Amino acid sequence: MTNTEFKNRFLPLHKELYSMAVRILGDSYEAEDAVQNLYLKLWERRDTLGSVENDGAYCRQLLKNICIDRWREMQRHQQQSFDEEAIDLCDETHSDEEKSDKLKHLRAFLARLHERQRRIFLLRLRGSTYDEMEQLTGLTATSLRMTVSRLKREFINSYKQKTGNI
After folding, report:
1. Which of 42, 72, 88, 143 lies deepest, with the highest CB count within 10 Å?
2. What residue ranges define each of the domains in the chain, with the CATH number in brackets?
3. What is the value of pTM for the model shown?
């Protein structure tokens, strides 16, 4: 397959594929990377693409697989980062048992949150500024501050109730 044939067959699908990747991954930068990886794979397979009957369906399926792999990797990385940061939240004066207890409570608290709330809370926990969060989520800084404040209060209250330190 020549450059021109490749461009004519697959580049017109870019907008649709990018939209699909954004829906799956929820992040425009990750989506751009996924689509770029898709085009790289297509280019590497260009000699065998002549037998593909439906270019759109083939690309969507390949992109879906790429996005799922990226999403799983993002989740794995997010969990590792979260574990490290959550442990750092605990003072060194606390015992390992107390740290483990706080981490379990934090995980349970996050599991109860809606995806958007969980993302906002984790971004702030990781030290993101409200400007950065505003760009990543599309929400206003005021809305983000209110959400973070309310979630912090909920977390503290739920931990106090659990430990009996009311």
Report:
1. 42
2. 3-73 (1.10.1740.10), 90-163 (1.10.10)
3. 0.50
